[in-house]
Amino acid sequence: MSGGSVQVIRLAGELDATRREEIARALTLDLGRGGVLVDLSGAEYADSTVIAELVRLRRDADHVGRSVALLTGSPRIARILAYAGLGEAFRIFEDRGTALTALTTGTV
Amino acid sequence: MDRQSWRPLWVTAAVLVLVVPIFIAAGLLVRGYVRGAFAAAEQVRTARIVAFDTLKLQLDEETGIRGYAATRDRTFLEPYRKARAHLPAAQQRLAAILAALSLPRAGGVVADAVATSREWEQKVASPLAGPSPTDPLVIQRDGKRLMDHYRADLTVVDQLLAQREALLDSQAEGAITRISLYVVLAVIVLSLLGIAYGIQQTRLAWRLAAQQREAAALRAAYETERRIAETLQDAFLQRPLPTLPAVSFSATYVPAAEQAKVGGDWYDGVELAPDRVLFAIGDVAGHGLEAAVAMNRARQALISAAVRDPDPARLLTRVNRELLARDARMVTVVCGYADSRTFEFTYASAGHPPPVLIEPGRPPRLLELGGLPLGVLESAAYTTMTVQTVPGAMLVLYTDGAVEHSRDVLAGETMLLDAVARAVDDAAPNVAAAIHRTIFDGRDPGDDVAILTVTFSHEGVGTGGAPRRSSIVATGSRGTNEVTATVVTPFEAPSSRRRPPSPWKIAS
User: Fold this and answer.
1) In which band, very low, low, confident or very high, does the pLDDT at B153 lie, cut at 50, 70 and 90?
2) Using a CB-CB distance cutoff of 8 angstroms, which residues of chain B are in contact with residue A49?
3) How far apart are CA B428 and CA B397, in angstroms?
4) Fewer beta carbons within 10 Å, N or C terminal of chain A?
5) Cβ contacts of A82 on chain B, cutoff 8 Å
6) Predicted ipTM?
């Protein structure tokens, strides 16, 4: 995995179906080649909309050889991600620095 | 009747108001023209008769004079005198008519004829009628010349009158033709306006009818969707759970109060053998008919696969691929088997909140989670979990509405576990309904909530019902339930790793 700058996507607040389009727009790859960090540390809730969009982002990233990691803040968001089985599909970090280092060095 | 529907009547009345005067005016015009033309023609004919009289009277005079000159018989002077008495009046009348007809050239010719007549009177008639004419032959030669002149004049007058008559005829004809043409044109224009108006009205009516049809179709489609949704909901609600001696079910489904929509939540309990049941609970993302249909599809796929495959992880893998091949609606599921011979729950989870297990005398606890939801990734891997339990153990399955109502799943899980413990303590007749009641206590969950419980009876089943893992049951060693997991990936045979491999095949 090549290094380079990490694309950070920050999603905050209540993330539910009412914000579907906004979430889908935010979870879009830029033109970079580095890793992608989806920062959910500011999220208070995430429903299946977010799960579906995260999986799609991951699939898109796979196509161009980029890795995606998730950053969680609150345990409840981590729990929702665990419900969705995302622990199997993403590396989930609780510390931003660690996440960025892992993505930059390509150890995700 | 609204204003719009009276419009054709108003337009028809307006067209009539226009058309009737046009026809009346045209009729009057035609009558006037014809009358005028007839009057003029009559005048011309009169003029021709008078001209003929003028000629005849002159010829009568001439004949009388010539007879007298030849015979000196005075009786010949009688017709001369008679004609003489009428000729000037006839000549004047002819001149007057010609003036009235505005035929100056004919008038000039008549004046010439009158002058000729006078000259004849002086030079021919008077000398010959006298007692002794000096040179009768010379006089008579002059008389013939003058008469020829007079006759020629009146012939010209008659020709001019005939020309005028023809002209009047053609003018009248032309005028009538023109008027007829105008009338025809007016009628054509009005007809075209009428046709255009009719077409416009018809198109309006058609458009209106089309809109009404469309609205009716939409209403019908909406009605149909609502009916189908209700039917599906009814079918869902009414699906009976099996009643078995060794395993009992309880279930509840409460749709979201605020939208009367079918949710994507469902549960199933199916008896596969006397000691083996299939249980499943699932949630299709979204609401409405599409979600209901997707739900039904996932549900049927799961049940028909479960009949063939006893391994829950393989089941989910199969259904995942089946769903992805058709549409990519996301579905979360927990499904598995309860074996009343061994008191084992075997299950697999796809993106669904964790099952709760409660055993007699122990607090309820959350079981292991699973893999990704169905319908999002072809290569998703699932894990079969086996939980060894004891008689009287109960598995509680639920949809996310049961724990996410406050949007804090951790708090939700605590509430759920408390509610499960209380329902069991209270020995509620419908445990699932009791759990729902305890959690929500009359509040609106804000989402569909389905809860399914699967409980082993205290007796187990049959005589040979000694559980395989007899050590656990025999010792009754609570808190040491053995949980084993089998991983199934689409490309691997079952193995006994506890952690499933990443479903992602990423080239790093």
Assistant:
1) very high
2) 285
3) 17
4) N
5) 369
6) 0.90
| DSSP E strand stretches across B306-403 | 331-339, 344-350, 356-358, 365-366, 382-388, 394-398
B226-258: burial string, b at 16+ Cβ within 10 Å, e else: eeebeebbeebeeeebeebebbbbbbbbbbbee
Sheet holding B344-350, edge to edge: B263-273, B276-287, B331-339, B344-350, B382-388, B483-488
Average pLDDT on B128-135 reads: 77
Average pLDDT, integer, range B275-293: 84
What is the pLDDT tens value at each position of chain A, 108 positions in all?
Answer: 445 689 999 999 999 888 989 999 999 999 888 999 999 999 999 988 899 999 999 999 999 999 999 999 889 999 999 999 998 889 999 999 999 999 988 777
Cα–Cα distance measured from residue A36 to residue A47, given in angstroms and rounded to the nearest whole number: 21
CB contact under 8 A, A52 and B370: no
Lowest mean pLDDT among B73-87, B224-238, B292-306: B224-238
Whether A45 and B349 lie within 8 Å, measured CB to CB: no
Q: Is residue A7 classed as helix, strand or coil in its secondary structure?
A: strand
pTM assigned to the model: 0.59
DSSP string, B229-254: HHHHHHHHHHPPPP--SSEEEEEEEE
Chain B residues near residue A55 by CB distance under 8 angstroms:
372, 376-377
SS3 B349: strand
Backbone torsions φ then ψ of A49, nearest 5 degrees: -55, -50
